[in-house]
Structures are given as structure tokens and as C-alpha cells.
Amino acid sequence: MEAKANLKYLRISPRKVKIVLDLIRGKDVGTATAILLQTPKAASEPVLKLLKSAAANAENNHQMDPEKLYVSACYANPGPIIKRIMPRAQGRAYRINKRTSHVTIVVSER
């Protein structure tokens, strides 16, 4: 049995979120929480909140033992890109892409 939690439209690029997700993939929930608390990345705070949500879903909706939970899968997919314009010299304009992510964490019981 597995429980999952989704976070949509996170305003951090998927490339940056994947770095944090690679740290916790396959770890048990207690260890993953400790890793995220000590990681100095912007994505670690929303990922920690999402991990707690997935663990709560497993405990409350699927009656899993919270001590046996581990992160079986976690991934970040690109969301919609917010496009902005940066004025440049001689009347030109450069595009600024503000990327978003859809993050999913799946926890299972060992």
C-alpha cells in the first residue's frame, strides 16, 4: 500500500527541486525529515511540508504504521512557465522565464 501527496505550482524550478528530492529518495520518513531540516536549499521547506502531508495521509487514510514508512518515490515535473520581459539596451527586450514545479512524494510501508 502506498500514500501520496502532491504540491502544484511551486514557484521554484524543477531542476532545483530535484536536487533536494534526490537526497531523500529511498530513506525512511524520520531520516528524510532530519535531512530536510538541515538542508540549506529554498526547496527543502516546501518538500518537508509535503513529506509530512504524505506521512499523515498514510497514517490517517490508509492506517499504515508511521514508524515503518519510507519515501518510495518522489519526483518534480515542470508546471506552467510565467513569462516576463526584461528591458535591454537599444529598445530590445529579453524574456525572463519564471518556472514552476508540480512535486509528488509517495510513501510506502517496509
Task: Describe the 3D structure.
The protein has 110 residues and is of the alpha+beta class. The protein has one domain: Ribosomal protein L22/L17 (Ribosomal Protein L22, Chain A, Alpha-Beta Complex), CATH 3.90.470.10. Helix content is 35%, strand content 36%. It has helices at residues 14-24, 29-38, 44-61, and strands spanning 2-10, 69-78, 82-87, 93-98, 101-109. The strands form two sheets. It has a three-stranded antiparallel β-sheet with strand order 1-5-2. Strand 3 and strand 4 (93-98) form a beta hairpin. Helix 2 (29-38) packs antiparallel against helix 3 (44-61). It is elongated and about 65 Å long. It starts with a strand and ends with a strand. This is Large ribosomal subunit protein uL22. It comes from Flintibacter hominis.
Low-confidence stretches: none
CATH class: Alpha Beta
Distance between the termini: 10 Å
**Gyration radius from CA atoms, angstroms:** 17 Å
In DSSP terms, counting alpha (H) and pi (I) runs of 4 or more, how many helices?
3
Please render the helix and strand layout as text:
Layout: E1 2-10, H1 14-24, H2 29-38, H3 44-61, E2 69-78, E3 82-87, E4 93-98, E5 101-109
Antiparallel strand pairs: 1-5, 2-5, 3-4
Helix pairs in contact: 2-3
